[in-house]
Amino acid sequence: MPPSDPSVPPLPLSADLSRENGVALWKQIQQVLEAEIAQGVWPPGEKLPTEFQLAERFDVNRHTVRRALAGMEEKGLLRVEQGRGIFVHEHVIDYMVTKRTRFTENLRRQNRSTDGKFLFVEMEGASEKVAKALGLREGDPVICCAKVSYADGRPINVSETYFSAVRFPGIEDVLRECESITEALQRCGVRDYTRKSTRVIARLPSQADADHLRQPRNRPVLVTEGLDVDENGRPVSFGASRWASDWVQIVFEN
Amino acid sequence: MPPSDPSVPPLPLSADLSRENGVALWKQIQQVLEAEIAQGVWPPGEKLPTEFQLAERFDVNRHTVRRALAGMEEKGLLRVEQGRGIFVHEHVIDYMVTKRTRFTENLRRQNRSTDGKFLFVEMEGASEKVAKALGLREGDPVICCAKVSYADGRPINVSETYFSAVRFPGIEDVLRECESITEALQRCGVRDYTRKSTRVIARLPSQADADHLRQPRNRPVLVTEGLDVDENGRPVSFGASRWASDWVQIVFEN
DNA sequence: TTAGTTTAGATGTCTAGACAAATTTTTGCG
DNA sequence: CGCAAAAATTTGTCTAGACATCTAAACTAA
């Protein structure tokens, strides 16, 4: 494989493709490009050559290059944008799930800028799942707060957080005025809260979630359902989140 | 299936594709086929019509059908086997992670047959991670037990489980004779153990893991790292597992 | 300068055909 | 009948070309 030079191990940058070794051309192309990305030839966020240029470089048809790029996109190594080009995927974020689960704190620790956008805040009747988690009865009034959270300007999380409307009267309006949920809870008398349990599953996103997270529907999202309790162990809020698996890895620790 | 009733709104089984609504043909085909699978027209495990037949049915080129099938395969809806055909993916397994994490029990509850194969059992020096988990010092002797676990005859899990060689002298041989890890631990005097912590992340598998799990390298695996402790809270074993995301959903609950 | 339009460049979709590789079925020989 | 070889079937890969759609840059007119 390493062609000729005895002293220096050359980078396999323009490694010649073999048409007779039984390995599909597109796989070989994918390997070469992945190696180049790993070696930093194309740094994260960088624009790759166009499909046409790559096809010329490897001396194959554009469709063959496209097959290789599709494989890399599926892996999450690339971001393909019609009319713009192909970009190397930036690195993912580690989201630590601990007893103290605070979105902003969590990401600040990783030197990420954070932002949030409330989609809506409204009262509704508790579903069976929400009621069970918050210790209510099905149909009891709860406040649902839907939100999209951003890190470095990218949407990484869509969530709904539920609060008992009886226990926190007026939280509906408080939430609308606040920047974060932690802040709203403090105004409602919850000095501190901790994460009691978290469920993690993987599934495909709904169309709405995919839109919010700006990711294709055929790429899975990580789904977490978490219950927060106050210092006395009483349920404070129940939250269901979908995370952009392209950008986030959930790390669970208790 | 019910072909002709005039009153009943017919299932969109052979819905005509529109070439002018801006939706790619392959996406429309994918939608139709997914709907048919959801409606049970093609039950799990069933062989779909051939690419050629599907192309004929939708009156498109075979490559257009292939694009639709690729999307469905990526979603995990299909299993494509060269020379054999296209098969509907069987349903996934829910693996519950609770305080009592017992592989066999867990799957029996879901009426799954279980099986296991030990890859190797050997002594090695504890890595930093293993040492930290088990309360040892780096380099201390540990027994590593590597295993592939099956449900319904399919590999769904590759794991390494580590035990302190000092605390469990002779477990190396016991493991080789036993069917399960639970059984081996009982023989070593551990009456019961519980899961203390589990970390869950998602990543791409190594080549070896992909081979064991019989899945492509470009499909992610769920990775769990769990620490089990005895009734006194002392660490018993530390395990690292990779799960076939095609077949398993990890459900975490504590 | 600014706003709108045009144009060029880039990716997306679809078709058509040829051959390769893997699997299953059929055929033919003993 | 049994088994091995041949043929048919089915998916995999690659090429070639046409046109659509989206984006960004260049241009034009107010």
UniProtKB/TrEMBL annotation, chains A, B:
Gene Ontology terms, MF aspect: DNA binding; DNA-binding transcription factor activity
Domain of life: Bacteria
SUPFAM superfamilies per record: Chorismate lyase-like (SSF64288), Winged helix' DNA-binding domain (SSF46785)
Entries under PROSITE patterns matching the protein: HTH_GNTR (PS50949)
Transmembrane segments: none
Alphabetical UniProt keywords: DNA-binding, Transcription, Transcription regulation
Residue stretches making up the HTH gntR-type domain: 23-91
CDD domains, per the entry: WHTH_GntR
UniProt record, GO biological process: negative regulation of DNA-templated transcription
NCBIfam families (UniProt xref): C_P_lyase_phnF (TIGR02325)
Name used for this protein in its record: GntR family phosphonate transport system transcriptional regulator
